[in-house]
Design the sequence.
């Protein structure tokens, strides 16, 4: 699905964050990215849908180089939804409105092609938003505002807001790092259900137990390169790289 070739990213032409990453992400695969802070994990994730423009290399999405400035990147971003550390919900909108905002925008924009009226688009989007809220047990919070939610509830809403766009790939940037410990479990439970559904997922995480349980493949990134990758069993039970061994000794 996604082929990354010799990906580089520099800031201000001085700070080299990614130094040549090459990998392939297959349809339905769950990839966990681990590594120390400042290693380039989040930058790599943000480059996958060009929230950060790569300095060099290719990102082929089903054969199309989306790093090419001539490509309509917004079209491909609809296929790769992202969940951030800090929720990024709109505080002046209800939970339901937060979920409906992007699907409504694109539904109305494309209603000539679909032959639907504005009201038909709104009705369909609203029904889907309620259905998603029911799946995570937050239907009763549809009319609440983000300030009335716990951190765990906010992140669960952020996840289904991303799902409302019917993405083919979900990108998670340390989705539990801003949560109190007792709230981490409820967010990971939603992500586990999503993984079980067959969604392609790329997850930057510090939750090693979650990575071991859910991931098909784990990447260890440090100093802007993939130092080692393999199955959870290979990475956790038989690490080869000295830097990975040192990292695991500190986090396990």
Sequence:
């Amino acid at each position: 699905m996604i082929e990354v070739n010799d990906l580089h990213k520099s800031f201000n032409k001085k700070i080299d964050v990614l130094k040549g990453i090459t990998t392939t992400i297959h349809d339905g695969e769950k990839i966990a990215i681990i590594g120390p802070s400042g290693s380039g994990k989040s930058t790599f994730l943000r480059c996958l849908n060009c929230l950060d423009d790569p300095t060099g290399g290719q990102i082929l999405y089903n054969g199309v180089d989306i790093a090419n400035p001539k490509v309509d990147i917004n079209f491909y971003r609809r296929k790769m939804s992202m969940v951030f550390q800090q929720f990024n919900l709109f505080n002046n909108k209800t939970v339901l409105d937060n979920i409906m905002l992007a699907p409504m925008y694109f539904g109305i924009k494309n209603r000539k092609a679909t032959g639907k009226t504005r009201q038909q688009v709104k009705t369909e989007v609203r029904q889907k938003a309620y259905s998603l809220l029911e799946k995570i047990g937050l239907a009763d919070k549809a009319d609440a505002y983000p300030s009335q939610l716990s951190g765990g509830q906010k992140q669960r809403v952020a996840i289904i807001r991303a799902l409302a766009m019917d993405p083919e790939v979900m990108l998670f940037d340390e989705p539990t790092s801003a949560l109190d410990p007792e709230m981490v479990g409820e967010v990971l439970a939603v992500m586990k259900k999503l993984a079980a559904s067959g969604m392609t997922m790329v997850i930057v995480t510090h939750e090693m137990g979650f990575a071991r349980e859910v991931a098909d493949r784990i990447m260890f990134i440090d100093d802007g390169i993939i130092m080692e990758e393999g199955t959870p069993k290979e990475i956790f039970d038989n690490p080869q790289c000295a830097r990975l061994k040192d990292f695991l000794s500190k986090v396990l």
Notes: The longest strand covers residues 15-25. The mean pLDDT is 93.
